Amino acid sequence: MRIVFMGTPEFAVPSLKLLLEQGYEVVAVVTQPDRPKGRKRVLTPSPVKEEALRHGLPVLQPERMRSEDAVAAVAALKPDLIVTAAYGQILPKGVLELPRLGCINVHGSLLPKYRGGAPIQRSIMNGERVTGVTIMYMAAGLDTGDMISRVEVPIEDDDTSGTMFEKLSVAGAKLLGATLPSIIDGTAGAVPQREEEATYAPNLTREDERIDWSKSAVQIHNQIRGLSPMAGAFTQLEGEVFKVWAASLASDKEKAGALPGEVLRADSDGIAVQTGEGVLLLKQIQPAGKKAMPASEWLKGARLNPGTVFGGEPA
C-alpha cells in the first residue's frame, strides 16, 4: 500500500499524522510551495511540509499540479492510493487516474453542501448549527465525487473558524482512520451526491470581509466569527480600516433614529453599535496601524463618542 498524501494547512496535519501512526506507507507528501508570511515576508513552509520533514518524508511542491512535470513526478511514486486534505489545487485527470484504489479527499463539510475552498468559514458565516467532514472519491468536478463516509460536528455559539478548523481536522482524521480499511479491502460504499442539494463555498474575497451594518447583529456576528482568526472582518473609522476580531450580541435596545453602524456607547464592556436589526457589542478590535486588542483597552487611550458612525470607504 503506497500512499501519496496531499495537503497544505494545519487542517490536514492530523490526517497525515494518523496515516503515519497507523503504520501506512506514505511514500511522499505533496504540498503548496513555501509562501512569504508576516510583515517581513519570510518564505515559510506549509504546516504539512513541516510535519512531513519531521518524519523524514519526501516532499513535492509543484507550483501547478496540472503541469506535465508535476503529473510525472507523482506517477513515478506509483501510488496505490492518494489521500488529500485541503491541498489547495484541483487535481488533473492524469493524477486522478493514477492510483488503483483511487483518490480520496477529506472535505470539511457535509457534502453536497458547501463544495469549494472555504466550507468551514462560510458555514459559520451563514449561521449553520451543524457541519462536519465528508470523505469522498475525487472526480473531475469541484467536490462532486461519490461520498464514502461522513461525520457531523455541531457549531457552538462561540465557535470561530479557528475552533472549527481544529475540531473538524481531528474529526476528519478519525473518520479517515475508520474509513481506510474498507477502501483497501474494496468494501467501501460510494454514494452519489444529489446535485439538487449542492451549495458552494468559494474562496473568500475582500468584499466578504467588509461589514455591512445594515445587516442584522446576528448576521454580522456570524461574519466576524467566520473570519476569525484568519482574515478578520473590517469596517472603517474616520476613513481608515478598523478590524473586528470578536463581538457578541448586546442586550442594549436599539436607538430610535440611529443609523446602522452608529456607536451607541463605548465603555469597559466594549463598543455597542446599532445594526440593521439589533445591537452588536465589539469586544476585540484592531484599529489601523495597531495590534489586535480588547476594545476596552483601546478606549482607555482613544476617544470614540456616541453618535460616531462606522462605515464608508477607507482612505
TrEMBL record:
Gene3D superfamilies: 3.40.50.12230. It holds the Pfam family Formyl_trans_N. SUPFAM superfamilies: FMT C-terminal domain-like, Formyltransferase. (6S)-5,6,7,8-tetrahydrofolate binds at S109, L110, L111, P112. Its EC number is 2.1.2.9. It is an enzyme of class 2 (transferase). It comes from the Bacteria. Keywords: Protein biosynthesis, Transferase. Residues 204-302 form the Formyl transferase C-terminal domain. Residues 1-176 form the Formyl transferase N-terminal domain. Belongs to the Fmt family. Attaches a formyl group to the free amino group of methionyl-tRNA(fMet). The formyl group appears to play a dual role in the initiator identity of N-formylmethionyl-tRNA by promoting its recognition by IF2 and preventing the misappropriation of this tRNA by the elongation apparatus. This is Methionyl-tRNA formyltransferase.
